[in-house]
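Input record, target 12 of the design panel.
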């Protein structure tokens, strides 16, 4: 996932030639970025339009690049991803409107647990740029994704971030979070007077979220063995039944 420009931009590293960079004998400007809707579901499509003007004195070609930048959520994703581009030729002072159509796959990530594409509910920024480092226009829209838990199999190796998406898992996590912190304090992983921000209950961006749920049994002995297995069985039965329907 973090390959090329997606790696360098996530690490905030400067590069000599940014992705999409190009040279020309003329200059271009972008204006009037607009979207057909700012509030949509994952089943909808959105039309994105932007005006491109040749502001120089010579005829030239420009590659108009469209990126999607997801706002921070539970899923770790690149800063931005290229979702469309179009090459146009403009005479001096000429203006053209470039239009893109975006759908579910343009906002989705691959859910490894469900083995399917999924859209996380939240805000997404639509960006038009000269390159991945040089964004000229941007606007924000909201997408309502579907919570697709069907087909997921919960095991001791399921990441905590997926475990707590299930209502049963969320209840178990919240009930035992305090005991986990106490256990971490005992072995020196966390300062007692100031617990690390990375393990705060509401912090879904922490490194703890990608750990398997088996880590809970290491700090909460009451869950080890049969108790945690029964919880996983209940979670799997509920969503297996939904899938059969």
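The sequence produced for target 12 reads:
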């Amino acid at each position: 996932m973090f390959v090329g420009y997606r790696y360098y931009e996530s690490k905030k590293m400067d590069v000599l030639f940014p992705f999409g960079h190009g040279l020309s004998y003329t200059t271009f400007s972008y204006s009037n970025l607009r979207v057909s809707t700012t509030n949509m579901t994952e089943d909808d499509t959105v039309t994105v339009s932007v005006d491109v003007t040749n502001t120089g004195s010579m005829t030239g070609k420009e590659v108009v690049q469209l990126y999607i930048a997801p706002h921070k959520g539970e899923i770790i994703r690149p800063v931005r991803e290229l979702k469309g581009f179009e090459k146009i030729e403009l005479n001096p002072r000429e203006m053209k409107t470039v239009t893109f159509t975006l759908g579910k796959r343009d906002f989705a990530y691959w859910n490894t647990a469900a083995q399917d594409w999924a859209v996380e509910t939240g805000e997404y920024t639509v960006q038009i740029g000269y390159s991945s480092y040089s964004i000229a226009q941007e606007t924000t829209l909201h997408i309502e994704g579907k919570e697709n838990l069907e087909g997921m199999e919960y095991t001791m190796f399921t990441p905590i971030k997926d475990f707590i998406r299930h209502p049963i898992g969320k209840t178990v996590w919240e009930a035992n979070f305090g005991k986990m912190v106490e256990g971490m304090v005992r072995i020196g992983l966390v300062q007692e007077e100031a617990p690390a921000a990375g393990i705060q209950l509401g912090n879904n961006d922490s490194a703890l979220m990608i750990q398997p749920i088996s880590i809970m049994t290491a700090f909460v002995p009451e869950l080890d063995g049969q108790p945690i297995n029964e919880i996983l069985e209940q979670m799997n039965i509920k969503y297996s039944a939904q899938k059969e329907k």
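Strands lie at 28-35, 39-41, 46-54, 60-70, 81-90, 95-102, 109-111, 116-118, 122-129, 135-144.
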